Amino acid sequence: MQDPGQGEAAEAGADDRDVHGALFSVGWTGGPMNPLLDQRSNSVKMTFMTSRRTDALSRERIVEATIQILDTAGESGLTLRAVTAHLATGRGAIYHHVTNKDELLAAAADGVISQVVAAAAGGDDPRGSIRALALGIFEAIDARPWVGVQLSREPFQPAVLQIWKAVGVSLSALGVGGTALADAGSALVNYVLGAAGQHAAGARRAPDGAARKEFLDGLAAEWARQDSDPLVQESAALLREHDDRAQFLAGVNIFLAGIFSSEAIAAVRRDASD
């Protein structure tokens, strides 16, 4: 079985050979030995060459094109061929920056999260920065569900590392350090990515208000049918009218309150010393 990377590389090579072959054919037909065809062949050369972009192709432009394709066609519509067509370039230019679809997805998610991190950074209120970061991630995944899917795939991809660092910087500025910093940061990042990703999964099933209400009504009814426990019945009733965004932020506030309570910090230190 052929490795996917080999297949893509082979297609890239074929693409480049097509370019070279077309130029060679035009040059041979209308070269100096055939002056009657020289004017026509020059016109063909110009038409052929201007069908490709002549400005330098940067990684940033590739990322922008990838995000646009993901937003309009979804992950299933993202291919290296689609990116080259969107940018009107050859595959060789794309392979100079990325080599496969996985790298495109990671770069696109990193591009989206970079904007979120930059918007939340700064200021003299680390708690506010954490809330702004968490909400920015929630809204980015809500608007672009593919971001949530990508963030769940690889814990060491650049986008996830950006989130970890931003949370760590804010917690450190609040005086959290050592084991408490690692534990609190891990718990908070896992909550933010997990809750936001779960919301995005629901949003894909119910993309508008009417569909969302129908989805929540059905889910609440199913919960209530499966378990008669009063706690489950109460949760099912609340599920129908709850606000995902407000509930998510409430969870962030609960985490922050727990992190900075003296009891929580003492418990972390006590466990670490055992």
TrEMBL record:
It holds the Pfam family TetR_N. InterPro entries: Homeodomain-like_sf, HTH-type_TetR-like_transc_reg, HTH_TetR, Tet_transcr_reg_TetR-rel_C_sf. Residues 56-116 form the HTH tetR-type domain. Keywords: DNA-binding, Transcription, Transcription regulation. Residues 79-98 bind DNA. PANTHER family: HTH-TYPE TRANSCRIPTIONAL REGULATOR RUTR, TRANSCRIPTIONAL REGULATORY PROTEIN. This is TetR family transcriptional regulator.
